[in-house]
Amino acid sequence: MSSVSIQQLGVRMGAVNILEQLDLSVHEGEFLVLLGPSGCGKSTLLHSIAGLIDVDAGSIHIGGKDVTWADPKDRSIGMVFQSYALYPTMNVERNMSFGLRVAGLPKQEIAQRVQRASKMLQLDPLLSRKPSQLSGGQRQRVAIGRALVRQAEVFLFDEPLSNLDAKLRTELRRELKQLHRELGATMIYVTHDQVEAMTLASRVAVMRGGRIQQIGAPGEVYARPANMFVAGFLGSPSINFVHGQLTIAEGSAAVFRAGVLDVTLPRDVFSAAPPAQAEAVLGVRPEHISLLPAGEMHPPAEVTLVEPMGSHFVVWVDMQGQRLSAIVTSAEPPAVGDRVGVAMDLARACVFDARTEQRL
């Protein structure tokens, strides 16, 4: 396993900058997930690491070696694409061993590598089958096995589960996490699926517009987002944003007001000393909102929609024009049209500058 270091990377497509002055360090043995919406540059970054795209500026180092202009075959990488890209006329064993045979490795070593990978991926009973005789999940496991037999220093995954149904995605997600634990290899994984990112990653790098917005452990990025984009991209249902006015009152109390909402915020929700007065946005996740019987102690709201989700309900309320979602775990949620009180766990809230959208 090896580390990956990217410095001041720039990639252009025609007159458009896809990546610009991007820096990224991937530690040895970690599972880094590049997360972001379509078109944010995450696949371009992965393909640059793989050598499939020429860069316009910056450098890429794998295991301390400068591979910026090295051919893909000389970068000691194994790559798994969104499409399986299997040879239809070859069986599973020959698909997995094809690259090794082209490289001229001894037959015994090829057999040992294929046997080890097929055992790890539970492909032993399928080695004689052709791709047309496999399910989507089995084909993707073969594609992963083809990368594993290379015994690469870094494994790259470009949205490998996006073509699978929900059940298969869950199963393969679990297998990938177990595979990383067994191999201890460095893995870089691209996805737009936040569930994949949160469950697989050692660290998550959230991207937007060719730039990394925030990088950190999944729990850290989720609980303390650097800006409104990161906060809004992670979480389902999405975080609630309430636009209002922040004021530092006497005694250094931070007061946030927005319509009927008038709350004092704990000082530790701020990443730095807040301004004396500012237009601000309060971010509260649905699981940190409680719905109580209507009363004078809590801002009033009306239930507008109830979504059953199996283990819980997502309840949408209207708080004098402000639409909020709350997760309710009780067996009997409030009904549409009910009047409720809204209570927020402010210790877990986030506050953002309304102009810059950065966390205060």
TrEMBL record:
<dbReference type="InterPro" id="IPR047641">
    <property type="entry name" value="ABC_transpr_MalK/UgpC-like"/>
</dbReference>
<dbReference type="Pfam" id="PF00005">
    <property type="entry name" value="ABC_tran"/>
</dbReference>
<dbReference type="GO" id="GO:0005524">
    <property type="term" value="F:ATP binding"/>
</dbReference>
<keyword id="KW-0472">Membrane</keyword>
<dbReference type="InterPro" id="IPR015855">
    <property type="entry name" value="ABC_transpr_MalK-like"/>
</dbReference>
<keyword id="KW-0547">Nucleotide-binding</keyword>
<dbReference type="InterPro" id="IPR027417">
    <property type="entry name" value="P-loop_NTPase"/>
</dbReference>
<dbReference type="InterPro" id="IPR003439">
    <property type="entry name" value="ABC_transporter-like_ATP-bd"/>
</dbReference>
<dbReference type="InterPro" id="IPR008995">
    <property type="entry name" value="Mo/tungstate-bd_C_term_dom"/>
</dbReference>
<dbReference type="InterPro" id="IPR003593">
    <property type="entry name" value="AAA+_ATPase"/>
</dbReference>
<keyword id="KW-0067">ATP-binding</keyword>
<dbReference type="InterPro" id="IPR017871">
    <property type="entry name" value="ABC_transporter-like_CS"/>
</dbReference>
<keyword id="KW-1003">Cell membrane</keyword>
<dbReference type="Pfam" id="PF08402">
    <property type="entry name" value="TOBE_2"/>
</dbReference>
<dbReference type="InterPro" id="IPR013611">
    <property type="entry name" value="Transp-assoc_OB_typ2"/>
</dbReference>
<protein>
    <submittedName>
        <fullName>ABC transporter ATP-binding protein</fullName>
    </submittedName>
</protein>
<keyword id="KW-0813">Transport</keyword>
<feature type="domain" description="ABC transporter">
    <location>
        <begin position="4"/>
        <end position="234"/>
    </location>
</feature>
<dbReference type="InterPro" id="IPR012340">
    <property type="entry name" value="NA-bd_OB-fold"/>
</dbReference>
